[in-house]
Amino acid sequence: MVIWLAAVSGAAAHHGIINFDLNRELQITGTVTQLRLVNPHSWLHLDVTEPDGKVTKWRCELRGASVLRRSGWSADMFAAGTKVTITGAPDRFTPNTCYLGTAVFSDGRRVDRYGQLQAASETRALPPRPARRADGRPNLAGDWAAEQRMLTDPRGISGAFVPLSVAKKAEPGSVPEGMQAFPGARGTAASLAENPVDTFWNRPSAFPLTDAGQQAISKFDGGSTDNPRLRCEATNILFDWSFEADVNRITQEDDRITLLYGSMNLERTIHLAAEHPKDVAPTRAGHSIGRWEGDVLVVETIGFAPGILSADARIPHSNQLRVTERFTLDADKGSITRTYVAEDPLYLQKPFTGGDTVQVADVPYQRTDCDDQSYKTTKAEDASTPAGTSTPRRLIWGGAFVAVVVALLAVTRLRRRPGQA
Fold it and tell me: Which domains, ranges and CATH numbers included, belong to the chain?
């Protein structure tokens, strides 16, 4: 067994890596005890034997179960008893915890964090899709997923966060022209800051907000359970459709279209040829009605509970949010493009606009559990530290400790390092 850490000189933000110090390199060799294939991140548990014979339990973070499945990874790779050497980065706060960059097995096989072991499209025979339904409408039914995204460094240590097709053509760890290095990646300003987590999260909103919007976001801590994703809940109908490149499912009937989101298992129904009810119970998904304008599905959604449009960009929304989406099928390319406009006169100074594209999925839709296996930290000041500084305090979330955490939530604000890489 070998454990080593080496300082790496820095040059010169998907926030999931900010809680790991990618400017230091770590290597451990151990025996797999368990693999937790869950969203938003999977966890590999290892027994590492020290030189004195003592066995130390380690755990290393991987990408989420859904994208690992799309990349050809399986539980069999890390069966209990498997010997493996992990090279990656240490957790900034929690001992015996790492970010998996590369795994090397005893037989010499190697796989990087973003390794595409088996292109699913090469192994799964996709049935032909009729472009239209019997009623003549575009056929949106099926399983769909956005193109995977990855750091240009296959290990996930350095570089920019780009579509898989772009990364394959880029130099490992490079930053393509017009882009920036991923915040938290090796050598970035965020990774080298005195307090990287606060540096990433505690900054002005990236969008023009009203006074009410500024007030709403002022106390929001995206690295804590203020962030819906960090408590295993969907963020909103825009963000979760393509953010993690999970596999989504659309079912289509004469009077409704149902969208099952692979990310956090959000479900929403688009009611066709219908009106919004007078009293809509506020929910994360809101109430959606749709109509066809030629071959374009236009969807209007209201009835949202107040929440977050983007935790990373610190953009809130109120219950006055109204979203208009336009879905267009390209049958030849096997893709659906969506554009959207989100209006919120209470919180947003102007409409929030954007779009995304999903393609016929390379693996079937599969409902995946979200199970938080990471740690949280508090912002509470420690009596032994100077005023104005904060000291991380680790709390295990799960098992017998849930009751303790719930009690603490009532009296103090829990701080959690981001977990979406």
Answer: 4-120 (2.40.50.140), 375-416 (no CATH)
